[in-house]
Structure prediction request, 394 residues.
Amino acid sequence: MPTRNGGAGARIAYYRSVTRPRLTQRQLADAAGVGLGTIRKIERGERGVGEATLDAIADALGVDPAQLRAGRDAARTRVRDALPALSAAVAAYDIPQERPVRPIQALHSAVADAARWRLGAQYTRIVRALPDLLAELARAYHDAGGEEREVLAGLFVSACRSADAVAYKFGAGDLSARLVELMRWAVPEAGDPLLSAAVAYVRTETFFAAEAHAAGLYALEQALDVLPVGTTEAELAARGALHMRAAVVAARRRDGSAASEHLAEARALAGRVREGVYRGTAFGADSVRVHEVSVAVGLGDEYVGRALEAAGMWEPPREMPAERRSGFYIELARARLWAGQADKAFESLRTARHIAPQHTREHLWVREDAATLRRLKRGDSEALTNFAEWCAAN
Prediction:
């Protein structure tokens, strides 16, 4: 059913203009499989946009459909409505139905797309594709043998991680925990210790959710103990990412000494690799700097000076995954709020929203801090009021 345009046309025109290279209306119409006249009318606000058409346009532009929707609740509702299908796919992982399976190269491509969407915080795209993809990977895995089975186990782990990003961010804790357990079940079959380290990194979410920081730190340190020592960039990055994560968990536990030690290890390892994504996790000097702010904020408001010092005038590079960049500004906003810099805190929240709107909107700290800012400003700012309503701040 078509939805009211309500600004979707302007958003489509904007994203069309900033693609590299810039798309003409005809090129967008061809890429999306939509009539040129339809694109023109949508951009002029003369006609509504159906869900299928909006999805096709978003795919052609390489953005999440949520970035094109005008309604404040449309994207959130769509993701939540899709979670039962994701749960069903997870529940039936060991009883795959007899249906066709694409060649393994096509599965590689589909899993890589999902991983890219996860790093870009494009949750609507993930939840739209992952139920069917997980079911297909389960069928392929159970029918395969030998080296192909190992490869498919690795693909299944990666796909579960992308699905977990949605479940965790949207508060589906039980589904998130189940996906983490599926990753832990499949990863031994993949025969990749670096992928095992990545799963240990993700598993920390369950400890964050339960506020079981001592157990989370212990689990990460165990993962570090069993991770083979290596000298390749991928091996160094796997170890560095675990130290980086351990520093954040230690900070949440208010263990400043352990946090500093793990952060120092991560910083040293980052000096030996290029910033990049390794086994699905971004690591490098820039990522460690983001985590320096996270650690300081995790230790509490008495460390606000350290957080602001770590951030300085630095901005995360655009090449860094959107989810991590938005997370930096969300945590910087909290530090600025603690420091009494209300206007700068709001500026940071708005930057986070611009980078990754779905990630920002679903973040608990954003709702808490937007509500605090709204009280401090006493409703003087229409922009702040609109932001607080957008993220459902109380």
